Amino acid sequence: MSRSPATHAQPRPRPLSPHLTIYRPRITMTTSILHRITGGALYVGTLLVALWLIAAATSKETFDYVNWFFGTLIGRLILFGYTWALMLHMLGGIRHFIWDTGAALEKHTASKLAWATLVGSVVLTVAVWVVGLIVRGGWA
């Protein structure tokens, strides 16, 4: 056993890792978190698309029921959210692809690109729904 005072001293408390409460939220941090969340949401949304396709392959009654659900207010909100998640995740992937080339990595440029991702996802979502409503002939 060592008689050195260093081995008998009380251990110092270890420093804590920086946490979300330490950092001020930045747009790049927010879009990174949203990219991960929308990735998970797309799994659930894709299951709903698969449910719709399975219903179409089984019987007219099953398909009519699933189609009715997607036509309700809750169903449309789910589909709208799925569309937004798809657009945000797609644009986030393009943003990461741009970063992979070594471009737009400066703080100011990365922030502008993150804002463009967020705004672009909303604009694309609304555009998809407006075009869909025009082609379909309204809500009915």
Q: In terms of per-residue confidence, which ranges show pLDDT below 50 for 5 or more consecutive residues?
A: none
Number of strand elements:
0
SS content category: mainly alpha
- Please tell me what the overall shape is: elongated
**Total separate domains:** 1
Total helices: the number is: 5
Percent of residues in beta strands?
Answer: under 5%
Could you spell the SSE succession in H and E letters?
HHHHH
Within the CATH hierarchy, at the fold level, what is the topology?
3 helical TM bundles of succinate and fumarate reductases
User: What's the CATH superfamily, by name?
Assistant: Fumarate reductase/succinate dehydrogenase, transmembrane subunit
What would the average pLDDT be, to the nearest integer?
A: 90
Largest sheet: none
Termini separation (Å)? 84 Å
* CATH C-level category: Mainly Alpha
Oligomer: single chain
Helix-residue proportion? over 70%
CATH architecture: Up-down Bundle
Give Rg in angstroms. Answer: 24 Å
Topology:
Blueprint: H1 5-8, H2 27-58, H3 60-71, H4 73-100, H5 107-136
Helix pairs in contact: 2-3, 2-4, 4-5
Can you walk through the features of this model?
The model has no long low-confidence stretch (mean pLDDT 90). This protein starts with a helix and ends with a helix. The chain is mostly helical and 140 residues long. Helix 2 (27-58) runs antiparallel to helix 3 (60-71), helix 2 crosses helix 4 and helix 4 runs antiparallel to helix 5. It is 76% helix and 0% strand. It contains 5 helices and no strands. The chain has a single domain (27-100, 108-136), classed as 3 helical TM bundles of succinate and fumarate reductases (Up-down Bundle), CATH 1.20.1300. Membrane-anchoring subunit of succinate dehydrogenase (SDH). The chain crosses the membrane at residues 33-56, 68-92, 113-135. Keywords: Heme, Iron, Membrane, Metal-binding, Transmembrane, Transmembrane helix.
